[in-house]
Amino acid sequence: MNKGFIGAIGDDLPSLIPIFIALTIFFSVFLSTYNIYTDTIQKADLEQDALDIALTIKSKSVISDYNDFENLCSKVTTSREWDAFLVPLDRNIDNYKELNLNNYKDLILEKKVNNNTKKFICNNKDIEFFNRADNKKTYMFPITLQTEIYTVPVRLYIIVW
Amino acid sequence: MILNKKAQAAITDALFFLTIIIALSVLMFKYSSTYGDQVYNSTQDLYFKEYTNSALKSIFFTQIPLSFDKNIDQVKEVDYLMTAIKSDFYSDGQIGASKDINTFVDDSSSLKNDDIAKYQLFSSIKSLMYPLPSYDYLFYLLNNNNNKFEFFLIKINEYEIKEQNNSFRTDVSFDSKDNIYYLCEPSSYSVLRDKMSNTNYIFSSSMPLQFTKKINTGISEIKISSTFALWPSSASIDKKLLEDELMKCKEIKID
Fold this sequence. Notes:
Chain A is 40% helix and 23% strand. Chain A is an alpha+beta fold. Helices cover 35% and strands 30% of the residues of chain B.
């Protein structure tokens, strides 16, 4: 009887265990790394697109009126779902209202244009889509808006998903 | 003899293979944990840079009541903020009623109305930055002719450090207190730079302005640079550093 000699294949059987463990570890780590890579790329693209949209809409120092705002919205070219709107920025900080997904439509600035009330919102998308999106980004900037009489600071919100 | 050691050699090879794979996996984890950080940081940097740019433009282009009211609808006279500041500076070469730029005059003073532009500048910046409570900021107007500050506002978020001793450890918590607003009179720009050296992430925008000042022989043109900067409140600046003789900061508690 030869010790340690089971057969040509039999001798290699115990060595298969570390090999299987190694392959399992390798492929699971590789898959995890690949998922992180694609996820990071998607998030970076989303943030870059959101910034590009923001820079387009706030390209003017003062938004002169509602038509000007509409023109700025129409200049945005992106394949993503997005929306942008203006919210008042009161000089009196006691009147400040924190924006959230429940109240934001009530806070959007409005203006009467030819007996119609127009809201300063670019696309008026349903916020439910934003809520359900896995990747989303919100940016806020202070900008200036010319109302009928005054030039006032407002908050510009850009949401992209 | 060799036949007896055949299986042992195969397992050894397999273990070497396992070791190499584990080393590769650790490298892949390390790489994936930091992947995209630089891109994320540069996007964030760009956002805050644009934010300070927007804030500075909003300060220049907004209109203000020419009184101590905050509601622009209820006043008779309004003007652009920077126009009001320049008009205030033109007559006496200072912004506000007092020669000390770090204070407002008393309410009972006859010169109180000379503080309107300064007060509206203070209020405008305060309201503009209110949606970002977790960021501290400063705004100044620096006279490039004599390197003196004509206006300096800084807001910091003071943290109260609480230590709670449990049986096994000491818990330290940072409770954010109210925002503190200061008007300051730094002795020089290098003093400001030294005080701000602890803040790693600071984003700023600057814009050159042209002020004019009435002098005996006519008008003098003054080059002013306006700068707005913000940084995370976590890089907290100790208020004692601001209240020393070099910065001469005084807390402003008006609304």
